[in-house]
Amino acid sequence: MRKDLVEILACPVDKSPLALTVEEEAGGEVVRGYLTCEKCSERYPIEDRIPNLLPPELRQGEHSH
Question: Which of 2, 29, 57, 63 has its CA at 20 to 30 Å from residue 48's CA atom?
Fold first, then answer.
């Protein structure tokens, strides 16, 4: 994910701004990390350069597969 994308992304729950935390970076892109809502503190993972902005209840269902 390009770092500048955080400026246009918003929390799917309450539409608040997201803060970026980078755990791994390559070529100026975030490979792994997470986005955190500044209002509700919900965290959205970034894996393999792709942010997962599904609401929490939909993401939790994903892990059971």
Answer: 57
Reduce the DSSP state of residue 19 to 3 states and report it: strand
Query: 48 lies in which domain range?
Result: 3-62
Kindly indicate the confidence band of residue 61, based on its pLDDT and cuts at 50, 70 and 90: low
pTM: 0.85
- Contact between residue 35 and residue 51 where contact means Cβ atoms under 8 Å apart: yes
CA distance 17 to 43: 12
In terms of residues, how long is the chain?
65
Number of independent structural domains in the chain: 1
Helix (H) or strand (E) holding 24: strand 18-26
CA 27 to chain centre: 19
Q: Which is more confidently placed, 6 or 56?
A: 6
Question: How much is the CA Rg of the chain, to the nearest whole Å?
Answer: 12
